[in-house]
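RECORD TYPE: inverse folding
INPUT: structure tokens
STRUCTURE:
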């Protein structure tokens, strides 16, 4: 089994705010991330798939095709968007890096061809903050 990773990038704005709480509690829990003026991040998205390399091509999967799938189903929906307001698959969810990684998995998994397995979504919110999701 070989693990193949494609890195993509998007910029997006968000706010960490739980509508079930008042402003004081949101500020106590989320600090400056609850600011109503939103804030943005330069996200780096690493998508890892796994399979045995094809005997004829030597590829686990063509990374150009993987990039097209990621862009079509994920990054084009997220890039330069407000995660809280503009992104259908984040509606009603807290826009944490954790939840975003889970939802990205759900968007991508149905489009990974048979015989190739989605292994990991690694999502950097900042150069110092990232999550990894393995679909469990
Ligand atoms: N578990 C999580 N905690 C936090 C998340 C998250 O998604 N999951 N997100 C945030 C905010 O989005 C916040 O903006 C993070 O960025 P930043 O404040 O820049 O983070 P740093 O601590 O690296 O910034 P410094 O420059 O070091 O202050 C918060 N928590």
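DESIGNED SEQUENCE:
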């Amino acid at each position: 089994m070989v693990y193949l990773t494609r890195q993509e990038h998007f910029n997006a704005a968000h706010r960490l705010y739980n509508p079930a709480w008042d402003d004081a509690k949101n500020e106590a829990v989320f600090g400056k991330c609850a600011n109503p003026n939103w804030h943005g991040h330069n996200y780096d998205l690493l998508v890892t798939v796994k399979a045995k390399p094809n005997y004829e091509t030597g590829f686990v999967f063509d990374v150009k095709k993987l990039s097209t799938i990621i862009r079509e189903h994920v990054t084009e929906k997220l890039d330069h968007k407000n995660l809280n307001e503009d992104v259908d698959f984040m509606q009603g969810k807290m826009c944490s890096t954790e939840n975003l990684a889970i939802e990205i998995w759900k968007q991508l998994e149905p489009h990974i061809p048979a015989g190739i397995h989605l292994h990991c979504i690694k999502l950097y919110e900042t150069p110092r903050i990232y999550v990894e999701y393995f679909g469990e």
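NOTES: The two ends are 20 Å apart (CA to CA).
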